[in-house]
Amino acid sequence: MMTNGPAALQRYIPLACWVAVLLTALFICLKIIGYGLIATGDARRHVAKPFANKPYTQIVVLPPEYVVDHSPGWEWLLGILHRALGWGEDALMRFSITSLILWLFCLPLLWLRRPEAWLAAILTATIADPQLITRWDQARPFLVTQGVLMALLLAWAKDEAKNPSWFKIVLTSAGFGLAVWMHGVWYLWVLLLAAFFMAQRWRDGLWLTACWIAGTLTAGLLTGHPIAFLYEAIFQVHRMYGEHLPGWMLVGELQPGDGDFPELILLALVYLWLKLQNQSLRPLFLQPIFWMIVINWVLGFSSVRFWADWGRPAALVWLATQFDDTLPAVAASTSWKRLLLCGLIALPLYLDEANDLGQRYTYSFNDTFVRADDAKLKGWFPEKNGLFYADNMTFFFNTFYANPQGDWRYVLGFEPGLMLPEDLKVYRAIERSGQAPEAYEPWIKKLRPEDRLAVESTSRPALPQLEWNHSGNVWIGRLPEKKAIKR
Question: Do the beta carbons of residue 185 and residue 216 sit within 8 Å?
Answer without folding.
Answer: no
